[in-house]
Amino acid sequence: xxxxxxxxxxxxxxxxxxxxxxxxxxxxxxxxxxxxxxxxxxxxxxxxxxxxxxxxxxxxxxxxxxxxxxxxxxxxxxxxxxxxxxxxxxxxxxxxxxxxxxxxxxxxxxxxxxxxxxxxxxxxxxxxxxxxxxxxxxxxxxxxxxxxxxxxxxxxxxxxxxxxxxxxxxxxxxxxxxxxxxxxxxxxxxxxxxxxxxxxxxxxxxxxxxxxxxxxxxxxxxxxxxxxxxxxxxxxxxxxxxxxxxxxxxxxxxxxxxxxxxxxxxxxxxxxxxxxxxxxxxxxxxxxxxxxxxxxxxxxxxxxxxxxxxxxxxxxxxxxxxxxxxxxxxxxxxxxxxxxxxxxxxx
Length: 347
Ligand SMILES: [Zn+2]
Known about the structure:
It is a single chain. With 347 residues, the protein is of the alpha+beta class. The chain has helices at residues 29-39, 44-53, 58-62, 105-114, 131-145, 153-165, 171-175, 202-216, 232-241, 244-247, 255-268, 332-346, and strands at 20-28, 70-71, 90-99, 122-130, 180-183, 191-194, 197-200, 223-225, 228-230, 322-330. Strand 6 (191-194) and strand 7 (197-200) form a beta hairpin. Helix 1 (29-39) crosses helix 2 (44-53) and helix 5 (131-145) crosses helix 11 (255-268). The longest helix is centred in the middle third of the chain and has 15 residues, at 131-145. Residues 1-5 and 271-316 have low confidence and may be disordered. It binds zinc ion (ZN).
């Protein structure tokens, strides 16, 4: 009986933007069968049942460069780069890395509940990570999705950052027909739209620059930002003069140390690290239901008193917080291909 070939996409619309990273890896079944029958000396039938149970490791599924029998291809009709096999020998694994946390727990459970349970069509593997690693993985994904040759990437990167930081805000509205992002001299927190421009409070603006720097620094000498091309020294100087470093309690002078603290701050104070630790003692207080007027909602980053003098910040507790990653592996295409390949192999 032929397996249904129509592949149904998973509905991930309930997850906040930026909380899922998708990976696709192709595997060549001819290469796999070859390994199992020739190198391991298994009979085809045994090889078949072994191959069927096979699931690549998380590293194999998510690494940016794949090794035999895995490979990546953007082509419509790819061929195995190792043995030249055509499409019908190639199976696809889709992997969704979902960051654990209060914004993703409910949609993740709901999604898992809906998935078929038989034949291990889907597998879930959990892995411990931390807020820094998650931040860098996110930056890597952001960097890959942007076109640095087109200046509008600066606005796109700002948007991705704000979406990440404030997932409940309607950013479609805020960024609709947007031409420019500017530092506000009026706002002390949050943001406002004025005509085709989006004004960010100094803190948010500083963080947007930092994100742009981090996303682009491997593509340019220094990094590109809304404030132009900046070296790390330029960036730190700018953040110091704008009062941002004082405000978040970074008193170090040495650029390398400042940079490390900035990364930890960015990683530990934002949505991507607001995870459940299992004890139920979330460090980040849970958010109240968003106000009806999303456009009026402001960022609530600082838990510090805003009336306090910026020169007397609370001591910064900098730790890399644990984050649980949930890898959801879609094996449906793989199982179907293994069956059809074996049918032709055995027949
Ligand atoms: Zn092959």
